[in-house]
Amino acid sequence: MEYQKAAELNGLCNGKIVTEYLCRNGFSELTVDAKKVAVQHKNETSRKEAEDESRLPALEEAYTTILRGLGENTDRQGLLKTPLRAAKAMQFLTKGYHETIYDVLNDAIFDEDHEELVIVKDIDMFSLCEHHLVPFFGKVHIGYLPSKKVVGLSKLASILLLILFIAVQERLTKQIAMAISEALQPVGVAVVIEAAHMCMVMRGVQKMNSRTVTSAMLGAFREDPKAREEFLALTKSA
Amino acid sequence: MERSKQKQMNESENEADSAINGHFDGRVKIPGWSAGGAAGTPSTAPSSSVMESWREERTRSLEDNEMSLPSIAAAYTTILRGLGEDPQRQGLLKTPWRAATAMQFFTKGYQEKIIDVLNDAIFDEDHDEMVIVKDIDMFSMCEHHLVPIFGRVHIGYLPNKRVLGLSKLARIVEIYSRRLQVQERLTKQIAVAITEALQPAGVGVVVEATHMCMVMRGVQKMNSKTVTSTMLGVFREDPKTRDEFLTLIRS
């Protein structure tokens, strides 16, 4: 049952992508869905902190199996508590399942008569690659065109707390964009993620300096090339 | 000698213990070589514990890898479930296998022995100036959190009639770094391996790395780097040599 919740959380976005493509305006259907989504999110956190504690022994055992399978001696001093530490680290890196956009943003939305681009750039991000369970990290640039409502700036960065889960970079970009558009209903949202994937750097092709860049443009940023250009120009400058 | 024999006997039971990461007593000697230095029978010859660690048995083979893959993959499935994910969804279907193979790759240093890598590439050369190979990219796994460490290694040595093929220095780094490691130990192991192979007048190793366990969790300091160094022989005793080495790796 819990698995379904997690799958929905991750799959929820995919359903929305479809509706979004179909929708000219970009947000009219989503505003209707937003309330439904809010209720859904509040009821369906797929992990709570108490559950984390109770799951720890199983995770520890799994890590001990992995260490033994790799040929290590789990009784040596440096590895004695490693299964516990690794399990806790993994739980930390996936605690985005706990959080909802409403927890992060809810209080810090203000009415402001500002209609120009607002950008928060160079936000450091980390996530776990869904295919190899190895970290990928980089920078996120977020920009939005407010429609009478602005959000506290650090809240844009706190959105990064939401994304601590097992992810695929393309989907992650979209999820961030969707989260902001749901909460603020702005005229447009643009998100660019530039990341280095350890699964490419440390193994496989082993290309040290390669970066993967993905972007999500919603609303005015998708329709108006000038807005998009302005965003990209401003996030490029050093 | 007696003590080291006893240690051998104790260690043959706990072979995995010292052989894997080469726990040293902290003594570093340049042992007398037996002529030829062939890959002989390591465990029967009386030798210092430092020698034993250098000539350690491979603790893992390709067959071991294949045999343990299913259990590691099953462990990863448990982990995914324990984190609240659904291992049956499309993106995660083969993830346990990929993650297990990736983890085996990140610890492939256990499959290799220094002696295989080095044996042919030691040459007699009448060169007694410093040789430095710097900016060797290094990737390792933190043994406490199982999270990556990456950075650079700079190695310098003062040869004493014998030089080493340059890429072999990078291979030594690979063997020791592709393991569950602690940065201090990694630095020391690289330095000791070079010392034992070449008996140079001195060796200096500097490792500069970023620890994801500090960057992604815990204190979350993005830009911090950890620097450790090991100076042996002339590098330890003579400050001018050390200075030269440190300046040259900075430039």
UniProtKB/TrEMBL annotation, chain A:
The keyword Hydrolase applies. It comes from the Eukaryota. GO terms for molecular function: GTP binding; GTP cyclohydrolase I activity; zinc ion binding. Its EC number is 3.5.4.16. InterPro entries: GTP-CH-I_C/QueF, GTP-CH-I_N, GTP_CycHdrlase_I, GTP_CycHdrlase_I_CS, GTP_CycHdrlase_I_dom. It is an enzyme of class 3 (hydrolase). It catalyses: GTP + H2O = 7,8-dihydroneopterin 3'-triphosphate + formate + H(+). The chain crosses the membrane at residues 150-168, 183-202. Keywords: GTP-binding, Hydrolase, Membrane, Nucleotide-binding, Tetrahydrobiopterin biosynthesis, Transmembrane, Transmembrane helix. Residues 60-235 form the GTP cyclohydrolase I domain. Pfam families: GTP_cyclohydroI (PF01227). The keyword Transmembrane applies. Pathway: Cofactor biosynthesis; 7,8-dihydroneopterin triphosphate biosynthesis; 7,8-dihydroneopterin triphosphate from GTP: step 1/1. GO terms for biological process: tetrahydrobiopterin biosynthetic process; tetrahydrofolate biosynthetic process. Belongs to the GTP cyclohydrolase I family. NCBIfam families: folE (TIGR00063), PRK09347.1-2 (NF006825), PRK09347.1-3 (NF006826). This is GTP cyclohydrolase 1. The lineage of its organism: Eukaryota, Metazoa, Chordata, Craniata, Vertebrata.
TrEMBL record, chain B:
Residues 40-49 have a biased composition (Low complexity). PROSITE patterns: GTP_CYCLOHYDROL_1_1, GTP_CYCLOHYDROL_1_2. Residues 73-250 form the GTP cyclohydrolase I domain. Residues 1-10, 53-63 have a biased composition (Basic and acidic residues). Its EC number is 3.5.4.16. This is GTP cyclohydrolase 1. The keyword RNA-binding does not apply. Keywords: Allosteric enzyme, Cytoplasm, GTP-binding, Hydrolase, Metal-binding, Nucleotide-binding, Nucleus, Tetrahydrobiopterin biosynthesis, Zinc. Belongs to the GTP cyclohydrolase I family. GO terms for biological process: tetrahydrobiopterin biosynthetic process; tetrahydrofolate biosynthetic process. HAMAP family: FolE. GO terms for cellular component: cytoplasm; nucleus. Residues 1-63 are annotated as: Disordered. It is found in: Cytoplasm; Nucleus. Pathway: Cofactor biosynthesis; 7,8-dihydroneopterin triphosphate biosynthesis; 7,8-dihydroneopterin triphosphate from GTP: step 1/1. It comes from the Eukaryota. It catalyses: GTP + H2O = 7,8-dihydroneopterin 3'-triphosphate + formate + H(+). InterPro entries: GTP-CH-I_C/QueF (IPR043133), GTP-CH-I_N (IPR043134), GTP_CycHdrlase_I (IPR001474), GTP_CycHdrlase_I_CS (IPR018234), GTP_CycHdrlase_I_dom (IPR020602). GO terms for molecular function: GTP binding; GTP cyclohydrolase I activity; zinc ion binding.
